[in-house]
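Protein: FMN dependent NADH:quinone oxidoreductase
Species: Streptomyces hintoniae
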Amino acid sequence: MPTLLHIDSSVFPAGASASRDVTDAFRAAWQEQHPEGTVIHRDLSAHPVPHISADAHTAGFADPATHTPGQAAAFAERLKLIEELENADAVLIGAPMYNFSIPSTLKAWLDNVILMGRTAGAEDSKLKGTPVTVVASRGGSYAPGTPREGFEYVQNYLRAVFADALGADLEFIVPELTMAPHNPAMADLVPLYEASRERALEDAATKAKSLADRLAA
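Structure follows.
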């Protein structure tokens, strides 16, 4: 049965996090299709991974036989994350926008799993073609044509990472205007927020079922 790697990075719990609500909807639909399948959930807010260190970085470019004890220990932890990603049949990532970019915990995870010559820049990379669905929630709107279009660094960055560098089959789900119910200045945008949320939840369920069926075929 297919394995789904589900990663959340929001600092807020389900019910208070738009990205978690949508990733939960995706996961629920996936498990409905494959109740006996495997889901690996990594909550980077509750259990952050180490930021990349000099030992972990340099070990990735050195012969394991030459690793110092520090390199060996750091790279072993990094390798667990890489193998977890490589062994996933599909990847689901909650990536809320914080200060125009992704949470630092998600960046730390990416720094660990991006390894030139293995996950990136290798013709035989196991990640090529792997379906990756990113839930890119944001408090406002950064869509093309909006005043803050130029501040969109989440989708642009993750597209460069997953599609361009890792060769994954990348799709986005974008719940936006999530601050509208909490910010009086955005009160007139609440209907647009509600429509965006409903569309994101429906999109998550549809994509999950379709993807689960495709991988099981």
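Remarks: The mean pLDDT is 95.
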